Amino acid sequence: MTIRDIFQTMDYGPAPEGSAEAMDWLKAHDNRFGHWIDGGWTKPHQTFATKNPATGTELAQVTQGTEADVAAAVKAATRAQAKWGRTPGHERARILYALARLVQKHSRLFAVLETLDNGKPIRESRDIDVPLVARHFYYHAGLAQLMDSELPGMVPVGVCGAVIPWNFPLLMLAWKVAPALAAGNTVVLKPAEYTPLTALLFAEISREAGLPKGALNVVTGDGATGAALVAADVAKVAFTGSTEVGRRIREATAGSGKALTLELGGKSPYIVFDDADLDSAIEGLVDAIWFNQGQVCCAGSRLLVQEGVAERFHQKLKRRMDGLRIGDPLDKCIDVGAVVDPVQLATITAMVDGNTEGETYRAATPVPAGCFYPPTLITGLSASSRLMQEEIFGPVLVSMTFRTPEEAVALANNTRYGLAASVWTENLNLALDIAPKIKAGVVWVNATNLFDAAAGFGGVRESGFGREGGWEGLMAYLKPAGTAKPLKPVAAVPAPNEAVVEGIDRTAKLYIGGKQARPDGGYSKAIWSARGKLLGHVGIGNRKDIRNAVEAAHAAKGWGKATGHNRAQVIYYIAENLAARSAEFAARLRDMTGRSGEAEVAASIQRLFTYAAWADKFDGVAKSVPIRGVALAMNEPVGVIGALCPDETPLLGLVSLMAPAIAMGNAVVLVPSEAFPLAATDLYQVLDTSDVPGGVVNIVTGGHAELAKTLAGHMDVDAVWSFSAADVSGLVEKEAASNLKRTWVNYGRARDWTAEGEGRAFLRAATEVKTIWVPYGE
Questions:
Q1: pLDDT one-digit tens code per residue, 89-133
Q2: Dihedral angle over CA of 46, 49, 50, 51, nearest 10
Q3: Could you tell me the domains of the chain?
Q4: Which residues have a catalytic role annotated?
Q5: Are 411 and 304 in contact (CB under 8 A)?
Q6: What confidence tens digit (pLDDT) does each residue in 366-406 have?
Q7: How far apart are the C-alpha atoms of 271 and 281, rounded to whole Å?
């Protein structure tokens, strides 16, 4: 096509980006790579091909990692971590800064190599991915510099195993490597099988930045390599990928003591109200769905359009789809690149071809031969349709309509996922009303797919747990430097030899929905005083009792909508009423444990005051992001929290878990100390007289092992905390994989609840961070 032809037709002419530099880098390695371990290349052994998905041409042979390879990488990382973890924050900051500068220096090489290996358009690699990678290392260089002064008493967790996907190979590397190194950890990274090349290039340039040998190791391979890394002797696993694999990782790490963050799948709603700028919303869809082949876990792939503008919006959208250009991803005039691999292409094709609902529209634009799929819109689907519920991970948009904002929220939340959402409206009041109601970790207002190192990113529900980015992301790579000396657990008094004891002094019921209730499991546990006196029988809660307690907790959802000030007043009132009966509670603790209870009661009252104070002060943060907008990191309640309470200090331990949870707006199902449950049953009357709404606090006595399994496996429980004397942590973490709920466990270790029973760690465990991106400024 000549210039004259272009001016006549106004068609885009080809504008290919040269690939010579990237091909030369591959050639310099003989197009054959080993792993990057301990600061250098290993010799390649069994290899597999990584290909250009646009052409099917082989780019290189990379080594299939074995358990021995992973073990060697972990050994190198362990050896390096001892020194890197003690390196002053300033020195770590200088190296991260150098990494950022080198990413910028080699930005063209990184962008071209990413497009060759992944198939995304060069404009996305060049203009979005690589600048964000540099931004992450710059930002985390700053966190490394400030960590010693801003986070005293926190230390790195150790060696981190990171497993990343193929949709953002280099950016996902930055999301995990930058905070890990900033915090003083070392890393073993397993890139996706389809897209390992930019990770290998990054590893190579890390040597130029002065990163110590072993601080970053890259082991290539398939899922078996990733499984070997998860099973290896690492302190933390950070995974981004599918929900199914994330669930298996949760099960595999259960009880191991390994820290875990999961950023998993999504089926994100894209909500367009009738007053929205429709053209802008359509361009947002182009960016979210088609500019990256729909290969983004947070892409707004569920389009919800208000009924009054749906027909016009869909017509405009189809016209825009017809104008999209599909072809060579290295061509700068291309909008839609290649799908990453023929296996993924076959998956997309099968899901769309297998659909029998609605109307399918494919863009009227030529589709080249090879690993390409046309932009596709499917309208008229039902909310339960497979395509509305499951990830397609391709350039396919599914759509349905709504009438009212309330219906839009209901449809948006009708999913097992909760990663991200986009809201389009010219009414900012409406947008800020809708954003808190959507169950998602990120909400964009009149925008989509905005990311920054300062703004936490991550999901809720089956989209995983943990945040990447910002201070909250850094905290996932740190742990307290040490713990106070734990109290020696107090043993329960064994029952006398008599098989049956007559004359029970009292029978304690359960506390569910603000009322005392008879346990479905009956009364079969006798509680004896330190002097051998029968204090009473407590109920043995079972699955039905837990079910009733969870239902009551969900019915109390209005508690989470109450103001922090109002929640604080209720908690102050609990403290006041407990203080009025302090002598009675101290006597009960003395009877059960054989030691004075005055100090424990006083500490419990003080703890209630502490969390009443925090109820309206654990604020969100406005993140300074380098765009025309502001990212609000808002602390929201987790939902329903189940907690297994400790034996060490039965009243103080229960209060230390209950108070932060309800202060942040959660409802709780508490399983009190198994040895000394009467400390909790005595609390019923205090709660009754303190204006605590029914269902906010529920107490079910019984065996921890039995109730832990039920609580952790319950699909309507959002988080489980276990500080039980019994080591049920592994059970809790394994059962929690059912809906990937958050867990916080102690692995059976005792804790000094007086010295380390309160603080921001409890508040963070009781909240989810939702990042809301709002237009702001000029």
A1: 999 999 999 999 999 999 999 999 999 999 999 999 999 999 999
A2: 180
A3: 16-264+472-478 (3.40.605.10), 269-458 (3.40.309.10), 507-617+634-753 (3.40.605.10)
A4: 263, 297
A5: yes
A6: 899 889 999 999 999 999 999 999 988 889 999 999 999 99
A7: 9
